[in-house]
Write a structure and sequence with these properties.
Blueprint (H helix, E strand, L loop, with lengths): L2 H8 L13 E9 L10 E12 L8 E15 L16 E14 L3 E12 L5 H11 L15 E16 L5 E12 L2 E13 L29 E15 H4 L16 E13 L2 E10 L12 E12 L1
Antiparallel strand pairs: 1-2, 1-12, 2-3, 3-4, 4-5, 5-6, 6-7, 7-8, 8-9, 9-10, 10-11, 11-12
């Protein structure tokens, strides 16, 4: 990567930034351990999430309502994607393909309530093998093997509820803190999380109901919010209590998967990143770490990967 180009991107909060209000957004988030190391390819191997977000034309003066439709895909593998013998697998191969509908509401007391419904498939029909083979061919990596032992097809139906509340911002509006609670129930993930999100601004921080940090930067022409330049570091730490994880245990209603394990009950996650606006665009990069999701992993000091963010606003 060319360093001058990277610096240009990091500080591209350009003079031509407009306070025009936008009601729609397309975004892409991609996760991969390649973004932190070209040597590592294990456990959570790849994630791709394409989203269309919009604010309804019907305006509500008491809160801002934002609808998001997401197409997501995730790939999980053992410590190596080339391990053929299933006895050596320390985590199942698994592909997960889904569509998700989110309804977010922001309130005047600096809080956000989001409800989500997900439908999809976990298993061979998610095309995890085909996508990973294509990625490896692009980067001239060894062809992955062992997918014949992947988690068997199971229907994905999941509900998620999320509540976030600001707990304060300093007088200069460059430091803030927010508490996040989340509950997931369904055939793929059932767990509960409690976390804390903080921002460190290079510009004055926007409130949580009007910031790219929380996907709340869309605005109706009648509301009082204005788009402002955003440039900030952020960190998110959370603890999750796991009840069920089908990517590790196999499907609730399909017990035929050849390789399954019991997940660990308590998971710690930490994400540190940077996001910024550039006219109609916003970009970001983050480092994500989590503790082991199951016992007896070949690499047992947690797992990490990188995240890239891209969004484009329009009418």
């Amino acid at each position: 990567m060319k360093y001058p180009f990277l610096l240009l991107l990091l500080f591209l909060t350009v003079e031509s930034f407009s306070q025009e209000k936008f009601t729609k957004e397309f975004s892409m988030v991609t996760d991969n351990d390649l973004y932190i190391s070209i040597e590592k390819d294990r456990y959570y191997s790849n994630g791709l999430f394409l989203s269309y977000r919009y604010i309804p034309t019907k305006f509500n003066k008491t809160h801002k309502k934002i609808i998001t439709v997401t197409l997501g895909h995730q790939i999980y593998t053992p410590f190596k994607s080339t391990v053929v013998n299933k006895i050596l697998h320390d985590r199942p191969f698994a592909g997960f393909l889904y569509a998700q509908l989110d309804v977010s509401k922001t309130f005047k007391n600096n809080s956000i309530l989001k409800n989500s419904f997900l439908v999809g498939v976990l298993g061979k029909s998610a095309f995890g093998q085909e996508l990973q083979e294509a990625i490896h061919e692009i980067y001239n990596f060894k062809k992955p093997d062992g997918w014949k032992h992947q988690i068997r097809n199971t229907l994905a139906l999941n509900f998620e509820g999320e509540y976030m509340k600001s707990v304060g911002i300093n007088k200069s509006f460059i430091l803030d803190g927010n508490i996040l609670s989340k509950l997931r129930i369904g055939t793929i993930f059932t767990d509960a999380s409690l976390g804390f999100i903080g921002r460190i601004g290079f510009k004055k921080l926007q409130p949580i109901n009007n910031s790219i940090a929380f996907n709340t930067n869309l605005n109706h022409k009648l509301n009082s919010f204005k788009r402002e330049i955003e440039s900030f570091l952020y960190y998110e730490a959370s603890l999750t209590y796991v009840v069920y994880d089908a990517t590790i245990q196999g499907g609730l209603f399909n017990k035929l998967s050849p390789v399954t394990f019991r997940p660990k009950k308590i998971i710690f996650d930490l994400e540190v990143g940077y996001k910024f606006t550039a006219n109609r665009f916003h970009f970001g990069y983050a480092y994500h770490f989590h503790t082991n999701k199951l016992k007896n992993l070949r690499f047992d000091k947690g797992n990490d990967y990188g995240k890239l963010f891209f969004s484009y606003l329009f009418h």
